[in-house]
Design goal:
Elements lengths: L2 H5 L2 H9 L3 H6 L11 H9 L8 H6 L5 E2 L20 H7 L13 H29 L4 H25 L6 H4 L24 H15 L17 H14 L3 H11 L24 H8 L7 E8 L2 H6 L4 E2 L2 H5 L13 E3 L7 E3 L8 E2 L9 E2 L6 E6 L4 E12 H14 L3 H13 L19 H9 L12 H4 L9 H18 L5 H9 L3 E5 L9 E5 L12 H5 L27
Antiparallel strand pairs: 1-3, 2-9, 4-5, 6-7, 8-9, 10-11
Helix pairs in contact: 4-7, 4-8, 7-8, 8-10, 11-12, 11-16, 12-16, 16-17, 16-20, 17-20, 18-20
């Protein structure tokens, strides 16, 4: 039975009431939802509870992973295209770190807000039913406990993502009490236009951790038909590891990351993707993503089918792309391990660059390289036709929300802050060496250099070009942690961690979350202002309140308190005259 048959029976009820007597009509309940009575029905309700929205594109627009093709570059304005349009005006607003008011469709803050709170509503509906049964029966059986755990951890995840997007970064218990949170909704809505208070960020994170810790012991994979589409035990531990990393509780982050890989002494290599070995087996662009996001891949912990236009915006020659410094710091970026691999484009354009050979054959453009590169393993699309003759329907892609490489880098960072520098480098090496087994490296294996503390320190302390190494101000963002070493003592290796995370998660939106929590300052060169030599520079500084995406305008209009912006009362952000741009 499909979930819509459980929830929506309005059409059938209406048909019946048309042939009923007046008294029969009056006796018909006004609430046409099916009264869920079985454990199986609640389990099926959770099948539909996962969010179908993706934060990848809107958050990538706010990072240093994308640049404006319409802006001048270097002497003579090389590589600039003044006629490129954005996919929609909302993309321009996100790139400018403005409130997105021009679009409420897919890949917008409005879409994210609605999507994650819709998922929360499903969770709360399931939890309300289970709480009622527990009250009536005095207990829940093991299956019901597992369903409740799934609903709780999914509710925690949804609020966690909302907080990452719409709030300032986690700043420690003391400072969090002064920052706006997001409404933590724990009950189904029963009134029209209910009013919610945002509360403090401290309250938001306390509720997230409460749901997370209560759910973890009762997650049970046996209740799932397809585990990779649910919060299975591995995905739950990966979420816990990420949560504790972002809240600077490194001992717990390490504990849960170790559980993901089966223990601290287990080799994480089997959890690394093998897509780099398969490049000769792909014919269509869609084949890359279909392989990478497969349910049979051990590296994938939690997959989320989502509705998104992301591939069209990346690969169709629109205004924003992975170009220039953004490209040279990521896909075409160097590191101590692969700096000997020099490349040039086969068409003779673009000069030479350094790139890990794993990217050769898995990245592409729309035919004009300056429009932007795409790593096709991270961006796929499956089109759902609603009318094949008309050629219309919905673009979907599968999002890897929790997976092996990202969790390994979580563990590496936790080890680093706990003083295990060599353990961190060992994990970074596992990540990098997993990519060496690719066709482009065959016969050139001796060009790779194993990571060491010495070569990491040399590379990241010498101001690596293109913004690969940017100042990290994590202690200013969140001064409270259980770190065993100072940031200054581990800075070069921490730069390597953030650099590898940036490469690994390109196109996925994680970079903006890292920019926030690390306290990285970035700049955007925006457009051509009338004359070709004129453009606008904008800076996202450490305390810039725009690091919290503004909540949707329709939510503000309904009475919810908006995020602070420059010029608001109690705004303590530095004035632009006091800012110094850090170019590298």
């Amino acid at each position: 039975m499909k979930i819509k048959n459980i929830i929506y029976t309005l059409a059938g009820v209406a048909a019946l009431t048309l042939s009923s007597s007046c008294s029969g009509f009056l006796d018909t309940p006004t609430d046409t939802r099916v009264d869920i009575k079985t454990t199986e029905q609640v389990r099926m309700l959770m099948n539909a509870a996962y969010p179908s929205v993706a934060y990848s594109w809107p958050l990538e627009l706010m990072t240093d992973n994308l640049e404006d093709n319409n802006s001048p570059e270097g002497e003579g304005n090389q590589g600039v295209h003044y006629n490129l349009s954005s996919y929609d005006r909302g993309d321009e607003e996100m790139f400018r770190w403005e409130q997105c008011v021009s679009s409420t469709g897919a890949d917008t803050p409005s879409n994210l807000w609605e999507g994650y709170y819709n998922s929360i509503a499903y969770c709360n509906a399931a939890l309300e039913i289970l709480d009622k049964w527990e009250t009536e029966n005095g207990k829940l059986d093991d299956t019901q406990k597992a369903i409740r755990a799934e609903a709780q951890i999914l509710r925690a995840y949804n609020h966690f993502i909302l907080a990452q997007i719409f709030c300032m970064p986690y700043s420690g218990e003391a400072k969090n009490k002064t920052l706006l949170g997001i409404p933590y909704v724990t009950k189904p809505e029963v009134t029209v236009k209910p009013h919610y208070e945002r509360g403090t960020l401290a309250e938001t994170y306390a509720m997230i951790e409460k749901d997370l810790t209560e759910a973890l012991p009762n997650i049970n994979n046996n209740i799932y038909e397809i585990q990779k589409y649910h919060f299975n035990t591995t995905a739950a531990n990966a979420f816990a590891a990420r949560y504790y990393l972002f809240t600077r509780q490194y001992e717990k982050a390490l504990e849960y990351a170790d559980k993901v890989f089966g223990g601290p002494d287990m080799d994480p290599t089997p959890y690394m993707s093998d897509i780099w070995t398969q490049l000769g087996n792909f014919y269509y662009v869609s084949d890359f993503g279909l392989y990478q996001n497969g349910m049979d891949k051990q590296t994938n912990f939690l997959l989320m089918p989502v509705y998104s236009l992301m591939l069209r915006k990346y690969a169709s020659g629109y205004r924003y792309g992975v170009v220039r410094d953004a490209l040279n710091a990521t896909i075409h970026g160097s590191s101590p391990a692969w700096s000997s691999f020099q490349w040039t484009q086969s068409n003779g354009k673009g000069g030479s660059f350094t790139m890990h050979p794993c990217f050769n054959g898995i990245c592409g453009t729309n035919g004009k390289s300056e429009y932007g590169y795409v790593m096709f393993g991270n961006v796929d699309e499956q089109f759902e036709y609603t009318d094949k003759i008309a050629g219309i329907g919905y673009p979907h892609h599968t999002r890897r929300e929790f997976y092996g490489e990202e969790t390994l880098l979580v563990r590496a960072e936790a080890k680093l802050f706990l003083g295990d520098v060599q353990g961190c480098i060992d994990d970074l090496s596992i990540w990098e060496k997993a990519r060496r087994d690719c066709p482009s490296a065959v016969g050139y294996e001796d060009r790779f250099v194993d990571l060491t503390l010495e070569n990491i320190t040399t590379f990241y302390s010498s101001k690596a070009k293109y913004g690969i190494a940017k100042p990290i101000n994590i202690d200013l963002v969140c001064p409270e942690s259980d770190a065993k070493v100072s940031v200054d003592a581990i800075m070069p290796v921490l730069q390597c961690v953030q650099h590898f995370r940036r490469i690994e998660t390109i196109h996925l939106g994680f970079r903006f979350l890292d920019i926030k929590r690390y306290g990285i300052e970035i700049a955007h060169k925006i457009g051509n202002n009338v004359a070709p030599m004129y453009h606008t520079m904008d800076y996202l500084t450490l305390d810039d309140p725009r690091r919290a995406v503004q909540i949707p305008a329709e939510v503000v209009a309904a009475g919810m308190q908006p995020n602070v912006r420059k010029g608001d009362v109690n705004d303590t952000v530095q004035s632009p005259d006091e800012l110094v741009l850090i170019s590298e």
